[in-house]
Design a protein that fits this description.
The protein has 2 domains: 254 residues, Beta-lactamase (3-Layer(aba) Sandwich), CATH 3.40.710.10; 120 residues, no CATH class. It has 11 helices and 18 strands. The longest helix has 25 residues. The two termini are 44 Å apart. The strands form 6 sheets. Strands 4-3-2-17-16-15-14-13 form an 8-stranded antiparallel beta sheet, sandwiched between helices. With 419 residues, it is of the alpha+beta class. A hairpin with a 5-residue loop joins strand 15 and strand 16.
Length: 419
């Protein structure tokens, strides 16, 4: 009787196997070149209308490029067309790379992400918070010590110092309104840890762990990397992340011999047409001719679409790419899961130690549950969708950006997938 039941079970399984394999094969996404032409049409129209000076788009599926285009101008006034290897200021896309640097040190047993920041930076031993009261703003002690986890997840209560409750205090010490939109460090003629030590004396805007506040957390984390690794942040990132991954065009300040590849910054005017941005923190910046001393772990890097896609592919593949292992699979996975509950959003979005995360399908356009990504102040945006084995990168230099292309780009990519 037992043998008969086993035979029947095997027959059922074998009979169903071809159908199961067929279903799995049908579930694999297929890139449609015909539907991808819609991406060309939209971006060409924005360039023709003068709303988009130029951009580079790159889409990888299972590590292979299925779409790569350069649109418009790298520097319109100089007559330089956009090219796939153009260099872009990636601003907050730096944060995920700094978080990876922290994870490397954690894997080596040199720190814990739940360590208090004050263990490495004494200036953060007794932090304060600016609380609004009916009588005005009151500076009160923090309820607990800030941790490295708080820094990476933006739950430390640390803003960019442009809030009206603290703006004047931050401006007086070279932050907030005195630093472009707050996040800009490239013109500071001092090491980043000197800047961070001053930050520790300023009041923050929320109690640790009680709110999601976007700000200087990754710059502070970058200083911790310097202190723990006993080397500058740029050297650590180069030796442990960008060089192994062959990200040969990623750096904090542009080498002189590559300066001609740096894309000019533009700004959306009131009529949405782009105009060339001025020099300085709110425009072209100091990434070529600046002091080259302050390595901002929150917003300092320059890169290309191809380079940044290699970094993202390393994360998607579990910490390894082309034989170079940067992180263990567990550490890479930890960087991609929501670590803040509903503090960032209660409508389908979370935030990990490095990325914004999609918690369920429908929470972030057409992204699958488990997708992750972020963007930068100059208009760039990226997303990784493990379910569809997709890595997508959109680079441009438009600040402020009054277009809707950051939202449209991922949807245009997803519509090109057919089953």
């Amino acid at each position: 009787m037992r043998l008969w039941r086993l035979a029947v079970l095997c027959a059922v399984v074998l009979a169903g196997a071809p159908a199961t394999r067929a279903h799995q094969a049908a579930a694999v996404s297929v890139w449609s070149t015909e539907r991808a032409a819609r991406i060309d049409a939209v971006f060409n129209q924005y360039v023709d209308d003068g709303r988009l000076p130029g951009a580079v788009l790159l889409v990888l599926q299972d590590g292979k490029p299925v779409y790569e285009r350069a649109f418009g101008w790298s520097d319109k006034e100089a007559g330089r067309k956009m090219a796939p290897d153009a260099l872009f200021r990636i601003a907050s896309q730096t944060k995920a790379i700094t978080a990876t640097a922290v994870m490397i040190l954690m894997e080596e047993g040199k720190l814990l992400i739940n360590d208090p920041v004050s263990k490495y930076l004494p200036a953060f031993s007794k932090t304060t918070v600016a609380m609004r009261t009916p009588q005005g703003v009151e500076i009160v002690p923090a309820k607990r010590r800030i941790t490295i986890r708080d820094l990476l997840t933006h739950t430390a209560g640390i803003s960019y110092g442009t809030d009206s409750s603290v703006a004047k205090l931050y401006e007086a010490k070279g932050f907030g309104p005195a630093a472009g939109e707050g996040w800009y460090f490239a013109d500071k003629d001092e090491p980043v840890c000197d800047s961070v030590d001053r930050l520790g004396t300023l009041p923050f805007v929320a109690q640790p762990g009680e709110a999601w506040v976007y700000g200087y957390g990754n710059d502070i984390a970058g200083c911790i990397v310097e202190r723990v690794a006993k080397q500058p942040l740029d050297a650590f990132i180069r030796e442990r992340i960008t060089a192994p991954l062959k990200m040969n065009d990623t750096f904090f300040f542009v080498p002189r011999d590559k300066a001609a590849r740096l894309t000019a910054v533009y700004a959306s005017g009131d009529d949405a047409r782009a105009v060339r941005a001025p020099a300085g923190p709110k425009g072209q910046g100091d990434y070529v001719d600046g002091p080259r001393r302050n390595f901002s772990g929150g917003a300092g890097l320059v890169s290309t679409a191809r380079d940044y896609a290699r970094f993202l592919e390393m994360i998607r593949r579990g910490g390894e790419l082309d034989g170079a292992r940067v992180l263990s699979p567990k550490s890479a996975a930890l960087l991609t899961v929501n670590a803040v509950g509903t503090l960032h959003s209660s409508t389908g979005m979370g935030y990990s130690l490095a990325f914004e995360t999609t918690e369920w399908f429908g929470g972030n356009g057409l992204s699958s549950a488990g997708a992750f990504g972020w963007g930068g102040a100059y208009g760039s945006v990226y997303r990784v969708d493990p379910a569809d084995k997709l890595t997508m990168v959109f680079m441009m230099q438009l600040m402020p950006n009054r277009t809707d292309l950051r939202e449209k780009f991922p949807n245009l990519v997803y519509q090109a997938l057919v089953r």
